[in-house]
Amino acid sequence: MPAQDEEMQTHGPLFDMRALGFKADEVVTVTGGGSGIGKATVLAAAQSGLAVSIWDINMAGAEETAKEVEQLGGKAIALSVDVTDPDAIEAAWKSTIAFGTCRYLVNNAGPPSTAGGPFVKNLEIALGSMELVTMRWLETQAEQATSIVNLASIAGNYMGGGGAISSFYPAAKAGVVGYTRYLATRFGGKPRANAVAPGMTLTPRTIPYFSIPAIAKGLERIPAGRAGYPEEIAAAILFLLSPASSYINGALLPVDGGWALS
Ligand SMILES: NC(=O)c1ccc[n+]([C@@H]2O[C@H](COP(=O)([O-])OP(=O)(O)OC[C@H]3O[C@@H](n4cnc5c(N)ncnc54)[C@H](O)[C@@H]3O)[C@@H](O)[C@H]2O)c1
């Protein structure tokens, strides 16, 4: 695994997602869509024909991503939203509904696995925010809501993560899976809800970790021989959102190059 200061490829190809069965110009909302996995998901969604509502606390990242969508010939709006703020969520849903028919939601935003601060506060940001965003959508758009994908992690689900990350993170990510299963069954299967569990993925958040010898050593166990690209996580998210996965509901899909099994 190359260290951070060596030349390191940080992006994979943008896969051709056009056969997944989305209808053109239906809207997907992606929280944390201004960076990393969220940004790759926005670009893959745009390439698959969806219009995208990009929510992020980092407006510069959201706007830059919207610009890249337009360069791909797609449609996007960038909204400044803190997913822990009910008023901001309410306003963002209003703007999104005015933008188009929102059928898909990706709950991706969350604090880094190394975030400090109170355990319960971090749980609220990482897990509580998904409930706030999702339920506000379902209260107003239940007829349109078709499919949800939540970002879990192999941490808390396939690995303990002890030592390298903060205690809230595996707890929150195990909670994401429980919450996803609740959503999958609560409304009679519409919307469907599934979760993706990325392994170590190259994003602005994680790239600094690659120069830490203990982390680089742990990554040597990945059967794929490398960390994942955000585009590889985005491809799994788009599949689980799409009509191509119409009979998959309540699933957790690890996308980790086989790391958790090694
Ligand atoms: N990168 C990995 O190795 C990895 C592994 C497992 C799971 N994940 C999960 O994937 C998701 C994305 O991670 P990433 O590595 O792409 O991170 P990233 O830091 O590259 O991007 C996260 C984005 O979310 C935004 N964000 C953070 N808090 C927010 C808030 N309160 N409201 C709105 N936006 C907010 C940030 O501004 C940023 O644009 C997270 O849920 C993370 O836990 C990542």
The ligands bound in this entry are: nicotinamide-adenine-dinucleotide
Total strands: 7
Mean pLDDT: 94
Question: Can you tell me the residue ranges where pLDDT is under 50 for at least 5 consecutive residues?
Answer: 1-5
Task: Report the sheet with the most strands, covering strand number, pairing sense and barrel closure.
Answer: 7 strands, parallel
Give the structural class: alpha/beta
The CATH topology is: Rossmann fold
Q: Please report the distance between the alpha carbons of the first and last residues.
A: 16 Å
Counting DSSP H or I runs of 4 or more residues, the number of helices is 7
Secondary structure layout plus pairing:
Elements: E1 27-31, H1 36-47, E2 51-56, H2 59-71, E3 76-80, H3 86-99, E4 102-107, H4 119-141, E5 147-151, H5 168-186, E6 192-198, H6 213-219, H7 230-241, E7 252-255
Parallel strand pairs: 1-2, 1-4, 2-3, 4-5, 5-6, 6-7
Helix pairs in contact: 1-2, 1-7, 3-4, 4-5
Features:
single chain; 262 residues; alpha/beta; seven-stranded parallel β-sheet; 7 helices; 38% helix; binds nicotinamide-adenine-dinucleotide
Give an account of the 3D structure.
It is a single chain. The protein is an alpha/beta fold and 262 residues long. It has seven helices and seven strands; from the N terminus they run E-H-E-H-E-H-E-H-E-H-E-H-H-E. The protein has a seven-stranded parallel sheet, sandwiched between helices. Helix 4 runs parallel beside helix 5. The longest helix has 23 residues. The two termini are 16 Å apart. The N terminus is likely disordered. Nicotinamide-adenine-dinucleotide binds next to helix 1. The site of nicotinamide-adenine-dinucleotide has 28 residues, from helix 1.
